[in-house]
Design goal:
8-stranded mixed beta sheet, Rossmann fold, 5-stranded parallel beta sheet, 405 residues, 21 strands, alpha/beta, binds cytidine-5'-triphosphate
Length: 405
């Protein structure tokens, strides 16, 4: 995706500014030609000479910007750009971009660029969480700018939080999965999509529950891909350890019953549903009000379980013909046969069948391999690839199905 692309990399002031140099290298390794803009603050952390040597091209800075020789550097650079990438992007840079300011070389170049734009934030966790930064993030998303979700981990301040700059290799692999042309960034615009994620929890008592191995990664990747394709996304999620994806509305749930209620009340106002949640099939017949204690006469404890409601089955009964419903099938054997049965039984438009018996892919990992089964009988197997890449493919199938309805 980056092969032969002209990437303008805007580096702003941050302890992560030096990682901009490694990122320039990674972009080149992926086949891009890179030119760099440094903000005044970035120039206090790293030098233009480093980037000029790496990119073998002049670096645009505030010094010497606007010459009297008739060259208008920021317009020339903006017109050259196929992809504008701001990384690391400070809170201040995001605020400039979100408000359309053009008072320095970086912001003027950004504003003048018509190419797709991606922001990779890096900042202190409190600055990231500040209402103003989140407002700016929302504005950028509304303007069609992709905003990657910063990593959570140890910050330069010595404490942990969300706001860490993503690793350059991770940024480049995320760029490969982003819909960056106008066609894909608007493939689902105007559509409201419900996405479910994570493993539901069925309470035994106030401190114990039954659950499964789902990490929620697949559902979160689908929510992100749908949002990046222009959809209005509601992510209904069981508890996970994942950061909230940019620009989606999150509805937290715990049990299968709560998930069913959340889906069924929102379904009439939605255009589609992707059921990526790993739903518990059984729940305790009764949950104890108080913690179950060990006593001298309970060496064995018998749990009585009953079936949970099948949400997709209930959805099928209420679904309008214009709605697109996608299910997943977690199988340990007879993947295609079982998948096809679920597709028919649950009246799905598309089913992603997943072999969960393999240790290298599936439940907890970052990679997956699915076979897409379509209602018209054809199927399509993906290679083993990142869940993000699979989510992007799934969303492009959803867009095609909407077009055919
Ligand atoms: N699903 C659902 N409600 C349930 C169980 C599952 O809506 N009570 C959804 C899942 O979110 C998934 C699809 O149905 O999209 C298939 O889930 P899976 O666990 O593979 O299949 P089940 O229908 O539960 O059948 P089995 O466990 O017997 O394979």
């Amino acid at each position: 995706m980056l092969q032969d692309k002209h990437v303008t990399l805007t580096v702003s002031g941050s302890v992560a500014s030096y990682k901009g140099a490694a990122l320039a290298r990674e972009l080149q390794r992926a086949g891009a030609t890179v030119r760099v803009v440094l903000t005044a603050a970035a120039s206090r952390f790293v030098t233009a000479e480093t980037f000029a040597a790496l990119t073998k091209a002049p670096v645009l800075t505030d010094t010497g910007w606007w010459h009297a020789d008739g060259k208008i550097d920021h317009i020339e650079l903006a017109d050259w750009t196929d992809l504008a990438l701001a990384a690391p992007a400070s809170a201040n840079l995001m605020a400039q971009f979100a408000n359309g300011l053009a008072d320095d070389a970086a912001s003027a170049t950004w504003l003048a660029t018509a190419a797709p734009k991606v922001v990779v934030p890096a900042m202190n966790t409190h600055m990231w969480q500040a209402a103003a930064t989140q407002r700016n993030r929302q504005q950028l998303l509304a303007d069609g700018v992709q905003v990657l979700t910063p990593a959570t981990g140890l910050l330069a301040e010595g404490y942990a939080g969300q706001g860490r700059f993503l690793e350059p290799t991770d940024i480049v692999s995320q760029l490969a999965t982003l819909p960056l042309d106008a066609q894909t960034t608007t493939a689902l615009s105007g559509k409201h999509l419900l996405v479910t994620a994570g493993g539901t929890r069925e309470r035994l008592d106030p401190v114990r529950f039954l659950t499964n191995d789902s990490s929620g990664k697949m559902g979160y990747a689908v929510a992100t891909a749908a949002q990046q394709a222009g959809a209005d996304v509601t992510l209904i999620t069981a508890p996970t350890k994942l950061p909230v994806p940019s620009g989606v509305t999150v509805v937290p749930i715990e049990s299968t019953q709560e998930l069913a209620d959340a889906v069924l009340t929102r379904l009439p106002a939605a255009d589609g549903l992707v059921m990526a949640a790993a739903v518990a099939d059984f729940q305790p017949v009764t949950a104890a009000d108080q913690k179950i204690k060990k006593t001298t006469d309970n060496d064995e404890l018998v749990l009585r379980l009953k079936k949970t409601p099948d949400i997709l089955q209930a959805v099928a009964a209420n679904k309008r013909p214009d709605q697109v419903v996608v299910g997943f099938a977690a199988e340990t054997q007879n993947l295609l046969e079982n998948g096809r049965q679920k597709l028919t039984k649950k009246h799905l438009d598309l089913l992603a069948a997943n072999d969960v018996s393999r240790a290298d892919i599936g439940f907890n990992g970052d990679n997956n391999q699915v076979t897409f089964l379509f209602a018209d009988g054809h199927s399509d197997q993906t290679p083993v690839t990142s869940k993000r890449a699979i989510a992007t493919t799934l969303i492009s199938h959803v867009a095609e199905i909407f077009n055919q309805k």
